[in-house]
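Section 3.1 - Work completed
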Amino acid sequence: MKNATNIAKAIRSRRVERRLTQDQLALLSGVVVSLISRYENGHIAPSLATLDKIAKALRVPAGDLLKAG
């Protein structure tokens, strides 16, 4: 669960830096907003494929979201 928490913080932090809402990130990444919310709250961790979609939408390497924390 610690990894999910670290990823959650990284996704939220990058999203806020980019001044995106969860809805906007969902549209850009093709991931439904309810999952974006669950990822950001640390309830679940995204699969690597989904993390890659989110990273591309945030314009950061996926590894940056994994290394955060």
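Second construct:
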Amino acid sequence: MFFIDPSNILITISLLPIIGSLFLLTIPDNRIDLIKQSGLLISCITFILSLVLWIDFDKSSFTFQFVKKLSWIDSSNFYCYIGLDGISLFFVLLTTFLTPICILANWNHFPNRIKDYIIAFLVLETFMINVFCVMDLVLFYVFFESVLIPMFLIIGVWGSRARKIYAAYQLVVYTLFGSVFMLLAILVIYLQVGSTDYHVLLNAEFKGVKQIFLWLAFFIGFAIKMPMLPFHIWLPEAHVEAPTAGSVILAGILLKLGSYGFIRFSLTMFPEASVYFAPMMYTLGLLAVVYTSMTTIRQIDLKKIIAYSSVAHMGFVTLGIFSFNSYGLEGSIFIMISHGIVSSALFLCIGVVYDKYKTRVYKYYSNIVQLMPIYVTMLFVFILANLSLPGTASFIGEFLTLLGIVHINSVAAILLAIGAILGAVYSIWLFNRVSFGNPNVTYLTNLEDLNLREFSYLTPLLILTILLGIYPELVLDYVHASSTYILL
């Protein structure tokens, strides 16, 4: 046991990035190196502190740990709790792990506005951490929507192409539309229960038609955020226009907010409605896996290929969540974590070649293995993980999800397996098309292998991809108790 109260560490983690952003405001704009080093240091300290929570976490307990009561004002009527269970713990770890990588990814970009750029990421980190920490429905909604503000700026200001403003507005309009229904549902819940505290709501009963409508209201908000088919239209556009680090945080964390909401609120607060709508969720999940996998094969933009594959992986997550057994639920959680690592790594790999050649159209790339052997070796491992090869992190999640679904519906399991095969098709095709073939001497003349900075942020992702594939108990042992409690 550590001498410092872990609950105080959790508060520190939830506030340190935004306090650090305030510190960055005091640094003159011309001190670019100091700004970058300070931003990286703040994000690294946050990650180290989150590791302390992981070490001190009791994996045998299903209850929230490191719980702290926070009073908004000097009154017992205005307070909330923050805490972590075995599920939210790893999403906090993933958030704090990816943020320093995002800062490193665009280390030499935006020299005139680098301070604003790093501040936007630190503020975004604070909002994302608090989404997973707060144990109050209203505050969850506040932070759930607040992530749109810095993300809008990251895409709209620092995006890479001409349609970045359109993509930023599309992201906000889509997600705000769904969240209006969710906000109305929260008001209805408060009027009935008189509280928005999570543990109080777990003991509340919403019966009949009211539970159906409340579930649907939450469904719209969460489905757009995931995103599920057919609410996914905003995602490829946002990925294509976002800077590399924006795509990393979008795929690594923001896509998990909706599925986390389904697990945390839909399954626990509206269990009967979740069972009632399970066939619809299976249908949407299977369509996402099969349809978007086929759509991915037709793409020519490297980022769009990974973006559409993310929708397919979220289809796996959907089926796992609504399998209502521990195999499926734990598999879906593992997919979310592994996808946050693998998809982020693939976007970083695309960013490496885009920074060197300023195009993401795959036809301009061929036989880069001759010029970038270290890069291609790393890309190969991440591609194998994307197609869920045994021994990589993605395989464990998809295997558990299939195991959970086959107990419910064998036809759905077969279609899900077909989707996995299609995923292997476009993954192998992408790697083969970019890495091998006739050298494209007309276009690829200045490509160099990974530099030290690029190697330093890709290597931890590579290690985690293999480590979680070989030793999944690092996650599953902590998730099991909380997932079992949710299914009770």
